[in-house]
Amino acid sequence: MEKKVFLLSGVLLLVGLYCSPAFAGDAMGPPTAGLTTGQFRVGLDYAWSESDVELSYGGTSVTAKNAEANRILANLGYGVTDDLEVYIRLGGANLEQDEFDGDYGFAYGFGTKVTLAKDSNPSWGALFQIGWTKSEDTYTDTVFGFGKIDMEADFYEIQIAAGPTYEMQGWCIYGGPMLYFLDGDLDVKTGRGSISIDIEEESCFGGYVGAEFDLAQNCLAYVEGQFTSDAVLVGTGVAWKF
């Protein structure tokens, strides 16, 4: 029994050092609705993030530092009313940390934005979005003697934000406070044992700021940054309305 506990703790440490998934959510865009009733939007979003995440099994836990992730997601939105839009996302995400360079795994999600006050400039709104990612990766350990390590991560992330959108000629700036939640599992298998590791966020409160630009009629682009005490994200995207 003690040998098994030592083995599982060792795997947890190894995953924390070299193979930990990276999490920091997705880009969000303005917190206010940007579509009129019946209008569609199709776009492409990209986000780079660097984050710390807590990995735990039983009474043992480690914090994975400075893990990087890249996300590329197609975005389809619809204006339910002038003040409410919904959207779905579909694409992939990968992770990089030290010697580990993971493949892109499947990612998807949905969200909604609502304009709460638009009688003045800036307008005010709030958004909610959730995303799921499931990916499989393999790492060969030559340091601790575990050999081939197979990993399968299955997790979801929730982001909630609110704030103003200030309109100017041909562009706008936006931002505000945000909440971030992460939960999921990381299944790790080696020739010497296997465990299912709990994954959680290190920090759930932060803020974000960004700018959106008109490129042409019904065509726009945006860039933004998100920050918590344990993570940073830079996102950008382009979209067409029709």
Please, could you describe this protein's structure?
The chain has 242 residues and is mainly β. The chain has a single domain, classed as Lipocalin. 7% of the residues lie in helices and 71% in strands. The protein has one helix at 2-19; strands at residues 40-57, 60-81, 84-97, 100-101, 105-117, 123-141, 147-168, 171-190, 193-201, 205-216, 219-228, 231-241. Strands 1, 2, 3, 4, 5, 6, 7, 8, 9, 10, 11 and 12 form a twelve-stranded antiparallel β-sheet that branches. β1 (40-57) and β2 (60-81) form a beta hairpin. It is elongated and about 60 Å long. The relative contact order is 0.22. Mean pLDDT is 82; it is low at 1-9.
Please write out the topology.
Elements: H1 2-19, E1 40-57, E2 60-81, E3 84-97, E4 100-101, E5 105-117, E6 123-141, E7 147-168, E8 171-190, E9 193-201, E10 205-216, E11 219-228, E12 231-241
List keywords for this structure.
242 residues; mainly beta; Lipocalin; twelve-stranded antiparallel beta sheet; 7% helix
| Secondary structure category | mainly beta
How many H/I helical runs?
A: 1
- The overall strand count is 12
Determine the N-to-C terminus distance: 62 Å
- What is the CATH architecture annotation? Beta Barrel
Main sheet summary: 12 strands, antiparallel
Number of domains: 1
What share of the residues does DSSP label as strand, in percent? over 45%
Query: What would the average pLDDT be, to the nearest integer?
Result: 82
Task: Tell me the helix content.
Answer: under 10%
The CATH topology label is Lipocalin
Highest CATH level, the class: Mainly Beta
Low-confidence runs: 1-9
Indicate the overall shape. elongated
